[in-house]
Amino acid sequence: MGGTNVLTLPMLIAQQVGTSFNPNFAGALGVILLLVSLAIIVAYNRILARLSGEQGLA
Amino acid sequence: MSAPTNRKPFDGGRAAYLVLNAALLAFLLAPIAIVLVFALNPTPYISFPPVGISLRWFAKFFSSAEFMNALWLSLWIAAVVLVLSIVIGAACALALARGNLPSRGFLTAFFMSPLMLPAILTGLALFQAYLLAGIGRPVWGLILAHTLVAVPYVIRTTLAVLHNFDRRIEEAAAVLGASPVRVFFEVTLPLIRPGVFAGGVFAFIVSFDQFPVSLFLVVPKGETLPVVLFNYMKFDLDGAIAAASMVSILLALAVVLVLERLIGLKAYVKL
Q: Does B115 reach chain A within 8 Å, measured CB to CB?
């Protein structure tokens, strides 16, 4: 969950909703977090497919 | 005695392997040991060299109505989530493995997606959806949210069992005159039960220590234990947190062991 000096994006979102009452900013942060995680998953799938594809050829 | 000279280069690798394993184990278990030290230390704040052993934080935890209500709420939500997710998860896994569905890959990814999305987004999205739908934050909404993130674990473990499933056993039962319902309850279900209950244990744990999804969905007087602990920790950092952590670790462990004893072993013995 991060300490006091390190604020991770999920904790920032939680703060924006719970403490700062700024759900719109929280929504924007959430969309960014969503896009980043989807990009990582897609990249991971691509790399994995390529690796296993090469294994299949060899 | 030629073995020691032969084994010498091998021993270096083995020593490194053992050291690495010990380091990993220490990394995983040290936090729990430290929590136990803090829970037993009687000083009114968390400090490292412990000055003694007392159970005052455990007493505070068990005598606090706030903590106890949260603990019971968490436990019974986790129990309901366990039941819901094994029913839904096993049905989903059977449909995915057997159903000859046209878009099987897409559906599998869809059901697994709660595992891939950041949990805080699941919580936030459900919170806003509940608000827009005007249903507020009822307990069943929290249960549904936990079930949503717990079902993929059951689907995963059940699919793994179904992958090695010998369908000829079912065919044999059908040939011998069993109705499809009877085949399901007397052949299929007992065979997939280890996978279903292994997923159920995960579902219980996922619900019991669910923080990010619960965070926005709890109501002020009906908070689950992780949320209560988090809110408490924002203002007080005393041993009660450590005691509560110890109790929830031990409770989760006990539930897993009991489930394993009751269902896990019995299922294997029956097989």
A: no
